[in-house]
Amino acid sequence: MASSRVVVTCVATVLGVLVLLLYGRAMPAVAERTALLDELAELFDTRTHWLLDADVQTCSSFYDCTSTTGEWALEQEKRRISRVHGWATSRGARLTGAEGHVRVVDAGVSGNRGWASVCYNLILTYAYAHGPAPQRMGVRTIHWLEMVRRGERWLIRRDWYWDPFGSGRPAATMAGEGDQVLAADWGQPVAAGVGQPGTTAGPGPDSGAQKEAYNREAAVAYADRYCGVAVPGSTGRYNQRYRDFTFLGGDCTNFVSQVLADSQAGGLPTDPGWSYRNGNPTLAWVRADAFVRHMLQTGRVKCLHRGTAAEVGPSLDLLRPGDLIAVEEKGAIEHLMVFVARDDRGTPLVDSHSADRYHVPWDLGADPGTVFWLLGVVP
Fold first, then answer.
1. Which residues of the chain have pLDDT under 70?
2. Helices 252-261 & 216-225, crossing angle to 10 degrees?
3. Sequence ranges of the domains in the chain
């Protein structure tokens, strides 16, 4: 019996030493990761206040400005703040509240380098002078961050995400990064003559499929539910029955196609050129320029107006819930949004994917030269 106790004691001692060694080695890594997560929480909490208060002075303390990519990331954040407040000023509105929620999807540390994938949900409220109540809009961004440790701080060296307050392009922090992933959603220059107000480019040979009524109320409800932004009435995620094309060029057209065609949404019948079957979409289902061209050719949509924000302004009243707004830059249609509602001033509000928007004013973040297509869904 004594010998067995000695063996058990020896085995327990060896196991204890091994656990101590392994745990001792793991402790610094766990502590470093915890410090990184704490820094990320503080960063995104501070970002929420930056946007509300238009505070661009304290931004730099969170960025590695010794690197070019860190400087680009900082400048992107400053531009983002300026765009939101510039829009509010131009519309006679003011931001009245901001609430942000951050979820770290994954993170890791290797020496003085760190990385993280972060989901950031932001709800903003704004009010017009003498308006009856604050208006609410929401956005969601998925960030891929590269961090570097400087002393006791973790600083941003790179920040890649789709910016809901920008043109819709990814906010890349390396020259050319934003263009390397835009294969699916972003297309070719608009053909001459396409998009003339008041006309379609068809109807084409399969236009008979459009005769079923478009359920606008269900289309808007679907857009709100699956826009990806966590607000009451939304799932806070995309519809899992469809593939997510964010990393293949963007998911905005895939989302718009769902809004029009899903049986729980608009219910428009598909056709051989525009369909999604067994996870396989046609080009017109997922790419903005191909979608607009196909829908005009088949008579499913009608171009109500095409021009800059100032030029299409008088035609905004023609939009009905469930209609679409396309964004054209440098001669190519690059983004699609669903018109879902109007705020108290009558400003059209949109939902979209890539970037994820919920009831965001239609022209927020647009450049003066941005061209919009107002597309009415037929019937």
1. 1-29, 167-212
2. 140
3. 55-177, 207-377
* Span 47-65, pLDDT tens digits: 898 888 887 777 888 999 9
- Name, in order, each residue with C-beta under 8 angstroms of 69's C-beta and a sequence gap of 6 or more: 146, 157, 158, 173, 174
| Residue 327 and residue 307 in contact, taking contact as beta carbons nearer than 8 Å | no
Say what the pLDDT of residue 54 is.
83
Token pair recorded at residue 298: 């088949």
How many residues are recorded in the chain?
379
Which tens digits make up the pLDDT trace of 132-177?
A: 788 999 999 999 999 999 988 899 999 999 899 975 555 543 333 3
Query: From CA 227, how far away is CA 356, in angstroms rounded?
Result: 6
Q: Is this structure's pTM higher than 0.70?
A: yes
Alpha-carbon separation of residue 8 from 3, 15, 140, 200, 347 (angstroms): 9, 11, 56, 85, 76
Residue 137 CA: distances (Å) to CA of 12, 167, 205, 378: 59, 17, 40, 28
Bond prior to 321 in cis (omega within 30° of 0): no
Burial of 138 (0-12, 13-18, 19+ CB in 10 A): buried
Query: DSSP for 353-366?
Result: TTTEEEEEETTTT-
Number of continuous H segments (helices) and E segments (strands) in the chain: 7, 13
Identify any residues that bridge with 158 across adjacent strands, giving them in sequence order.
Answer: 146
Measured distance CA(76)–CA(240) in Å, rounded: 31
3-class DSSP assignment, residue 77: helix
